[in-house]
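Self-study notes.
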Amino acid sequence: MGALLALASAVAYGIADYAGGLLSRRAHFGTVAFVGQVGGLVFALAAAPFVPAPAGWDGLAWGALSGVGTGAGMLFLYRGISRGAMSVVVPVSAVGGVALPVLVGVAVLGDRPSVLTWAGIVMAVPALWLVARTRGPAKADGVADALFASVGIAVQYLALAQADAGLWAVVAGRVAAAAVVLPAVRRPVTAVVPAAACGATAALALTCYLLATRYQLVTVAVVLSSLYPAIPVLLGVTLLRERLSRWQVAGLGGAAGAIGLLVVN
């Protein structure tokens, strides 16, 4: 159950990433991101009453910290893309966002993955790099932003996994993320409904991830959820008729193998 929920998180996040990227071509990314967080907040508020949650402020605090990671990661990621090559910025942020939670999960949270799980993790990291790489010059510009973005992504995953407040943790996270992103808003966005829908889909992804951590090791849930870059690649091939590079094909094959190893545990 945990592995399936984590994979559902990856699919939802991938769809939100793909649609949000297309919207950001027509409107300022900060505005699209803010409207998306508001849409995610509406979704989380509607869904939260249906998931039992213990009372207490600790879970909400962890959820808010997760949202700070979300907002900061998003801003650094988009700034990095605006300064450097997407073929470098996206893979660095994605791989860092996986590696840091795995290290913390093992060293701090006491996760003890099996041999097969470790094999899946080892296979997933380079696969994620290859899938996220795009054609173009591999300039080093934007690497610092990508590293900061990866820390934000890691904080998002790790903090949410510690939040024992049901979906109210996701609610707190969307409020915090909106507050972090708000200063980046530049002008009104015309596509309010699509942007809000992207945010709601991203909130659904976080919901699936949060539930996955209740059944699965944090290290496994993070790795499976972080395979979301494969979804925009597949959507680009099927909907936009984009062509895959041989490295992306290899990455998709590696991701499939990693999923197989992680799901069987």
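Second protein, same conventions, sequence then structure:
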Amino acid sequence: MENVLRPLIVIGGSVVLTLVVGWLVDLLLRRADTRHPETPLWGLLRRCRLPLQFVLITALLSGTYRQAEIGSLRSHHDGIGRILSLVLIGASAWLAVKVATAVVESTYSRYAAATRDPARVRRVRTQVTLIQRVVIAVVGVVAVAAMLLTFPAMRTVGTSMLASAGVLGIVAGVAAQSTLGNLFAGFQIAFGDMVRIGDTVVVDGEWGTVEEITLTFLAVRTWDERRITMPVSYFTSKPFENWSRGGVQMTGTVFFHLDHAAPVPEMREKLHEVLRDCPAWDGRDWSLAVTDTTPSTMHVRAVVTAKDADDIWTVRCVVRERLIAWLYEHHPYALPRIATAPAAEATAAVSPPLTKRPESEPVAADEVRPRTGRG
């Protein structure tokens, strides 16, 4: 009977104690979140309940599994202990990542709620994202290294590797030159405020919004929902357009090629009317002027403003469509025209035969012409 009760007490007690501790921690965090609604940290820490329970039950089993005295497992105590150690290291790394993520996200949420500048919020969001990825990478590397060091054979290998760390570092640096370049470029982008998540950029002739920034690559979402993935080193070595730098407000232009008789003052009034009816126009500025002329047309430029790149595209399309329709309906002469004429028929190569005038037919006076000597 003791051979059955002892394993049940050891294993069952570990499970019950883990569930009770997890419930108590969750209850305390819930009460703290209720008392301090201005701080999202306590609510975010509740996500750590599952990895915390994994750490607790693994630690309890690692310390008490020998007391269970299960006969069929006595010859495998070393293997079970190593497996529990590996699980404990992995669960601890998981818990550390969850806690660090909760702290970072809580700090960002409080900063975003207290800051009204969207550009600063996007900059901090970019930095927070990269910090989270760095923390995950560092914790993952340390956890894998700790797991490998639990094996006696790997300890010997580790000692020999440390003896030749200088040579290996040089070889690794040369082999991973491109990767390390992208890694440092990612830090330069994050903390140098060159480009942020949510910025509108133009790269290689493609217009889009920065959707994701990692330690090695950057993803740009285009207007037609394509994703352009580029190495982060591109943004530190080549020029690119950042339309959100210094603010997201945009100024756009619409060009018209019209006849010289186009009613420019009436067009200016119609432009203002169109803008007042357009929700995407932010009301900051507008204008219409003749900027150039050619022998057949003149160039009319309309200048409009909007709060961001998406709205400026909408305003430009609306202005172009409404003004052309208005000109076609009320002033069709203002639209440029190309004069064409039907081609003349080809003349016959051989002249028709001359008809002889009848002798009886009188000759008109205007047909009598003096000889000039020119034929």
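Instructor comment on the second fold: The chain has three domains: 2-114, 151-246, 250-334.
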